[in-house]
Design brief:
Length: 176
């Protein structure tokens, strides 16, 4: 993997499963099984990237398990627990114009429809009803806010997103 290319974490290897080298897999993709569409995997093990091939995988209870090529026992599998599964950002599918990856929104300036600078998108979080932007307020916020939680609902609260200007316009009160 080219160290200068941008990478995206799409999952993590979890605990060892059984004695034949299987590992639990935590997928961060929308469809959990889609993590296996990216092959081979790049994993970050002890701070260094390493290419691994998934030999076999299956659904187990409510989760996923996988067997990596060349990992045939519990001790060898143990070395991989906690390793991040990464891909190059260029491998992600293109999205329609009105859809965004969270990573694209982080760092954008948020301004409300009255022109008030609300701050910078620090992170996004999923909730049961909708995604929420965590906006870190400016140091000199006139309303004393350190952060704002703004629902990411396009056409209701999120009025526009300008990728070039890295700016999001929201219909959200300045003092909330």
């Amino acid at each position: 993997m080219n160290s200068t290319s941008e990478t995206v974490v799409i999952g993590q290897l979890g605990a060892v499963y059984g004695v034949k080298g299987w590992l639990k897999v935590q997928s961060y993709t929308d469809d959990a099984e889609a993590i296996f569409d990216y092959s081979p995997w790049q994993i970050i093990k002890q701070g260094k990237p390493q290419t691994v091939q998934v030999e076999e995988w299956r659904r187990h209870n409510k989760g996923l398990i996988a067997k990596l090529a060349g990992v045939d026992d519990r001790d060898k599998a143990q070395v991989y627990t906690g390793a991040d599964i990464v891909i190059e950002a260029a491998q992600l599918p293109e999205l329609p114009e009105d859809e965004f990856y969270w990573r694209d929104l982080i760092g954008m300036t948020v301004v409300n429809t009255e022109g008030y600078n609300m701050g910078i998108v620090d992170q996004l979080m999923a909730t049961a009803s909708n995604d929420v932007m965590v906006v870190k307020a400016n140091n000199n916020d006139a309303f004393g806010r350190s952060e704002r939680l703004i629902p990411f609902i396009q056409s209701q609260y999120v009025q526009s997103i300008d990728r070039e200007a890295k700016r999001i316009v929201v219909d959200w009160p300045s003092d909330f």
